[in-house]
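User: Second chain of the day. Same drill as before.
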Amino acid sequence: MSAIDTAARAHLFNAGSLGRYRDVLARGVDRVARRVGAADRPFTGVTPEALAPVVGAIDLDRPLGDTDAALDELHDVWLRDAVYFHHPRYLAHLNCPVVIPALLGEAVLSAVNSSLDTWDQSVGATLMERRLIEWTAGRIGLGATADGVFTSGGTQSNLQAMLLAREEAYRRVVGGAATRPARPEVLARLRIITSAAGHFSVQKAAKLLGLSADAVLTVPTDAGRRMRTDELARTIDRCRRDGQVVMAVVATAGTTDFGTIDPLPEIADICTAAGVWMHVDAAYGCGLLVSPTRRHLLDGIERAASVTVDYHKSFFQPVSSSALLVRDGRTLRHATWHADYLNPARAVEQGIPNQVDKSIQTTRRFDACKLWLTLRIMGPDAIGALFDQVVDLAADAWRLFDADPRFEVAARSPLSTVVFRHLPPGADPNLVDEANLHAREALATSGAALVAGTKVDGAHWLKLTLLNPETTVDDIAHVRDLIADHAAWYARTAATAELSCPVG
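Assistant: Same format as last time:
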């Protein structure tokens, strides 16, 4: 064996390298701990122009050969400038701080490296994931025939839900036809209905599933940014009159922009009467499943045919940790494909539990381990209490902005978002848009805080997404004042520029 071979083998994780494993991981953990401890703001404000040359100059064919040197370099290209979601003034997207039991799970699952496709690669991990699926389905109330599978995130969960709905709709159409229609003909007639506030992944799923370009129909929302059920019923009726087949209605329990929850009981009534698959995208609102005080906000979700949950949004889990749940576990067969080397048909006959039979992925991480340890160490009530705290904080934040004459607020969220904009006195709509865009960019450049942006009825607004229980009303008030200062400065500067501009 050459010296290179010997040196390479020294990096393998096995019984002979346990000392090195403990030492190297401890060094990495120490670097992260030091960086998190030193972070006085969520972001450094670094720009792509500044960081790209540093990353681009690294020669990946010339290893450093030293753990500390590699960690120093990692600090320079990532750790120093990473966006730290744990910081109380990170208020932008649906990124949560994570709990320590889940980080423990991440470390354990990465080292063991189980693959959750077949039993002979995962053994107990398969049973643990199934138990967590059963537990989540029980929290939703889907019934004894429910099943599901962990996924990489809400987009994948929604994609698989639409796949199952498509196949069920195709089966119904073909089964009820006197002459078997061609599959492309049926797919061209399929429609998905969601609200104007629904997630873009629904449109993306329709495209990936080969549906027509106009397959997704959006219905308007009410003043509270919730799906209008009268419009939903009319849209279903119109589709039937036009010879189209509604394969699914996608309701949202926690819209990305407004954190609103569609009227699930009424939507369920309409879907039941029409014989339509009801999917609930609860990627954000799934934290209510463990809320000690707000579970009722999800009433009606138990009537869904499928549900998306993102534990890495409101269960305080590291990315990735999501799942798709279905009321009738048999529908998961639409994602099954038997391969002789992996999950032959005889494995089903032998009762061997293979998760690849339910997933659109093959190799898949044991992400369920993180949630398992979180539940076993903290318990669901503790997770729900954390989520309740951020929902309470959002209510306080909404009142803070609503009472401030410098700002306008949009619909009040039952979850943890606040949509608002600064209103410079006497400014025209274009200047209002520009001032708010500038305020968000200036805030990010400073690194003092991060907020998100969106559009409401064509106008630019700002958004807080609150998922950190450590954030305080004082933090939000401070960020509010920074935004007001940046926006007001821009409005004054723009007005001065217009006045000084020569005429004619």
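Residues 44 and 81 are 6 Å apart (CA to CA).

User: Great, on to the next one.
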